[in-house]
Design goal:
alpha/beta; eight-stranded mixed β-sheet; two-stranded antiparallel ribbon; 4 helices; 10 strands; globular
Length: 179
């Protein structure tokens, strides 16, 4: 039996659980910005070849004026709109569970969930996320976009690794316990 590809969430959030301030403001991430420190991101992305990202998150990344960081990967932008594909980027409006199960059954490296909160919620409801890399930024925002929404099933996890960094960021790596 071949082992199934893993769907991995790799994301940062404030200590009180927000991935963005109101209006999708990500400025709080600058609290931990440090020249030459990528918090293990380059190593992580070397182990993935497919990216799932919500349309709003995708548009936010594009609007920031940087080159899209996953242009060399197979990218699925999850959307409710009909948008033409562009190169390696596919705009997907079908059934998310079916897409993930299809991707997991194919050979390849890991599948990276790059957010946002709506996609994470849908994946959690279907019990499709296998691993979690959650970087805790040392700030309390008080309000914003919560990483974990209510009304999702309980999920047992096993702590695999904890890393702490000079700027106060703590990265937690959890793996789903398969029953």
């Amino acid at each position: 039996m071949t082992s199934e590809r893993k769907l991995i969430l790799y994301i940062a959030m404030s200590l009180d659980g927000y991935i963005a301030k109101p209006n999708d403001d990500l400025e709080f991430l600058s609290v931990v910005a440090h020249e030459g420190e990528d918090y293990g991101y380059a190593e992580f992305v070397s182990g993935i070849d497919t990216v799932l990202i919500g349309r709003k998150t995708y548009e936010k990344v594009i609007s920031m004026g940087y080159e899209f960081p996953h242009a060399d990967k197979e990218v699925y932008v999850i959307t409710r709109q009909s948008i033409p594909n562009s190169g390696n980027t596919k705009f997907y409006s079908g059934n998310l569970k079916e897409l993930v199960l299809q991707l997991k059954s194919q050979s390849g490296k890991g599948i990276y969930c790059d957010g946002g909160a709506e996609i994470v919620h849908e994946l959690l409801k279907e019990n499709l996320i296998d691993e979690f890399y959650i970087s805790i930024v040392p700030i309390l925002l008080g309000e914003g976009i919560s990483l974990f929404k209510q009304h999702r099933p309980e999920l047992n996890l096993k702590l695999s690794e904890v890393k702490s960094f000079d700027k106060g960021l703590v990265q937690l790596h959890y793996k789903k316990i398969f029953n």
